[in-house]
Amino acid sequence: MTVKIIRNGLTHALSFRPAVFYVIPLIPCLTYSVYFSGFVIQFLIEKMGMIGFLPPPYGYYVTDVVVAAAIGVATGLCVGPLIPVCSHWLARFSILQLLLHVSVLALALSSQCFPYSNLAPKRVVFQHTLVTTDANRIVNSSYGFAVLDSNSLSFLFKYAPEVAKGLYTGKELSFETTDMSSRETWLGSFPVSLLFSQTLKFPARSDGIFKHYRYFPHLSIYKPHTISSDRSRRVYLEFSLGDLEEVWVTILNITGPLSSWSFADNILPDPEIVDGGPPSYMLRLSGTSQANWTFWLEASSSDDLRVEVAVVDQVLDDEVERLKGLFPDWADVATYSSFMSSYIF
């Protein structure tokens, strides 16, 4: 069977038999290409939603451009081999007009759709920060919020007004008077906290946590320090988690002239430098322990060693539970308590 097409006064005969022989061997390859491309695009879209908040105005479009480029490449790989067969149909002006109108209509409709749902939620981090001193004293308490995509916290509170009213007990939220939380506040979530570009801090009560715990994490010296012949100083420390029950992770951020420690065969990792700050050595301890941890830190000089401790616990007080319940279903909220303290040795 042949089809005759008149083009520029000439008659061209297109046979279906060569086209069929050309397409049939491609079916397994095209099927796998569609499956693999769909998997890659779905994975890419999920990861693009977790790259962090990028500064506007270009931050709103970076992820869309990356996803669009990936979809274009995937479409070319899946449809490209069929172009020699169907090019004479696609080249018609009416077909091009139809594709253009469908694209414009899809853009117009997609811009009116809400970008989040139960299956594709907006990821929000809600941290109750408790700054402690000694073993049972809280000197500061605050709520911290952060997001992991290009829609900032103003977008979140605009479409979740109940949360904003809950934070201000019925008053209207004003971003001009709201404090930005420092990066040090998010030590417990390091290195995920590097994805946070905009974070907000709100004052919070601390008495609710005493219903669950009496003693908090603290660091202390359990025997006098020693000085070696090369003038290096070794400090012996003991770390207690208090009576915390559901500890997820403990982070120790050590700055100063640290030359060795009792972890990892006394080998120091490469230091972390964040926002031009001093070199920091990060130590991560997972889970809980029935006994206190004892270890030593060695300084190469008499200068002070500064240790910042952040313990992430999954127990929430009643007020935090209430605020978490105010978030809509399209927000996936990771909520935890972070006990922070600082020491100089």
TrEMBL record:
InterPro entries from the UniProt entry: ERMP1-like_C (IPR053973)
Domain Endoplasmic reticulum metallopeptidase 1-like C-terminal: start-end pairs: 120-343
Signal peptide positions on this chain: none
Spans through the membrane: 20-45, 65-83, 90-109
Entry keywords, A to Z: Membrane, Transmembrane, Transmembrane helix
Family indicated by similarity: Belongs to the peptidase M28 family.
Protein name (Swiss-Prot/TrEMBL): Endoplasmic reticulum metallopeptidase 1-like C-terminal domain-containing protein
Record organism: Salix suchowensis
Organism phylogeny: Eukaryota, Viridiplantae, Streptophyta, Embryophyta, Tracheophyta
